[in-house]
UniProtKB/TrEMBL annotation:
Pfam families: TetR_N. InterPro entries: Homeodomain-like_sf, HTH-type_TetR-like_transc_reg, HTH_TetR. Keywords: DNA-binding, Transcription, Transcription regulation. The keyword DNA-binding applies. The keyword Cytoplasm does not apply. Residues 31-50 bind DNA. This is HTH tetR-type domain-containing protein. SUPFAM superfamilies: Homeodomain-like. Residues 8-68 form the HTH tetR-type domain.
Amino acid sequence: MGRPSLVAERREQILRAAARSVARHGLAGSTQERIAAAAGMSRSHVRHYVGNRDELVDALWDHVITPYFASMREALNDREPAARLPALVDYLFGPQMARNEDDLVIEALISGAMHDVRLRGRIYDSYSRLEREIGETIRAAVPGCGSAESLQLAYALICMAFGHSTLAPLPFPATRQAGMKALAAQMLAALEAAHAAPPSDAGAGASR
């Protein structure tokens, strides 16, 4: 049996080093030389295992964002559709979204996307996919909810959750998080109420 490939291991090593570098030095300051040094490799190794600068940035984005999307899906799996909405709120405003070093990397990449059309499209693809997944979760739990309505609410939930995470380092009262989570739950409850089947008045109509 041949020796197993080290590609996955080396890529992970490089991407962890890239994340540390971007969190500390920003995207512009994270040259391939600096990332290679942090990974204990040469620049040629970085190019061999990950690729050029654009490919490295794309891989770094996937490295930091994919675990959040995957854990959200895991939190919703194996639940009845109606039970997925409270689970979704719990996830978006729970400890899984607590601020950590990943946020520094994500924010640096989003900031870099302001001047990089290619990166902007890459990041948009990820968030629009998240929006669609949340919209699908909403429509499965709320029969009669249309695509446009569910996507609008999905976008609002994403903005609320990620905005709250961004402001977490500021000394707002602890009640702000609970209040934001309660507001998200109220928005979903209002949607469910708006699409609840009205009581049948067939009998009343027949008696008139």
